[in-house]
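Practice problem 4.
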């Protein structure tokens, strides 16, 4: 799927007179407003699901042909759990995610302004991650005692940094207040992190422009095909 697609966009793929959608599971990152390029759709019957894979595969969604296949998760964390249970983000963790990407629908707009308010911190000096689940758990432990609202996905360093000595992966952490974020800096900047190296903790600068991609896509007179700038961003 296009990274900007949301639940309401997925719904348009399935004509209401032919298909009954029972559930759509889509993960949206609160720091970028993006989905991971896929989601899961539960239909009312196996017959509808089989027909959708035949009739709707390749259908246009925000300018891109989508693939519709059987809903087999690539890993246990790819799929939302049955109703009444927690989402995959909290599954089998000792410290659950601060932000449930699968269950909340405000990710694309709720987190703007955190950098300006001094509530978003940069955390650098991370090694190449084992998994996002492990990173979330360890970062929550590192900031134990602080009111953490969200932890971003781990971000790869620029190519120019990847072959330099040391660890250069990083992420962002959102706090409930600017005072708490500043206290975290004063307390934890330069301290040894969960992976043995010292972590850099500082105020984040600016915000991701990716949360605005949808508005650009829908701008009057703009073509259905994403611009080269957005394509480059999507590939990053």
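Answer key:
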């Amino acid at each position: 799927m296009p990274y900007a697609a949301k639940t309401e966009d997925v719904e348009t793929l399935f004509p209401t007179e032919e298909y009954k959608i029972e559930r759509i599971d889509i993960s949206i990152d609160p720091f970028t407003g993006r989905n991971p390029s896929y989601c899961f759709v539960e239909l009312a019957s196996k017959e509808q699901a089989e027909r959708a894979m035949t009739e709707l595969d390749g259908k246009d969604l925000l300018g891109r042909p989508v693939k519709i296949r059987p809903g087999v998760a690539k890993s246990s964390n790819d799929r939302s759990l049955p109703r009444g249970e927690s989402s995959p983000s909290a599954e089998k963790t000792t410290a659950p995610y601060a932000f449930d990407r699968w269950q909340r629908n405000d990710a694309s707009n709720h987190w703007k302004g955190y950098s300006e308010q001094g509530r978003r911190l940069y955390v650098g000096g991370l090694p190449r991650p084992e998994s996002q689940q492990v990173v979330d758990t360890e970062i929550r432990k590192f900031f134990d005692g602080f009111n953490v609202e969200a932890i971003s996905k781990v971000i790869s360093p620029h190519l120019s940094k990847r072959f330099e000595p040391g660890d250069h992966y990083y992420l962002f952490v959102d706090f409930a207040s600017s005072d708490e974020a500043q206290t975290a800096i004063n307390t934890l900047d330069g301290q040894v992190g969960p992976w043995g190296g010292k972590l850099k903790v500082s105020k984040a600068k600016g915000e991701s422009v990716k949360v605005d991609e949808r508005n650009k896509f829908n701008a009057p007179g703009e073509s259905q095909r994403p611009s080269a700038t957005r394509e480059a961003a999507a590939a990053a």
